[in-house]
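In line with agreed milestones, the collection of sequences with tokenised folds has grown. A representative record is reproduced below.
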Amino acid sequence: MIHTWNRNAANYFETMQIKYEEGQKEGVKIGIEQKTQEILLAMFQAGNSDENIALVMNIPIEEVKVLRKKISLKEWGEYEN
């Protein structure tokens, strides 16, 4: 019985450790995405062109255009509420 409990506890600990590591990675990813959006918003508001932003941020121009549209829609939604 104690052996089974120890095995279950070890499995639980291992599972929780994996979930913690996955959560930490996800949190870092979300943080990077949010910071990138903040930087892009500032660059958009400063009047930088999509081409300049793509060059400076080293991301494809198509992605900049998509992000500009997403950020614009997000801002519009904030003003509506």
Summary: The chain has a mean pLDDT of 86. Helices lie at 2-45, 50-57, 61-80. The chain has one domain: 2-80.
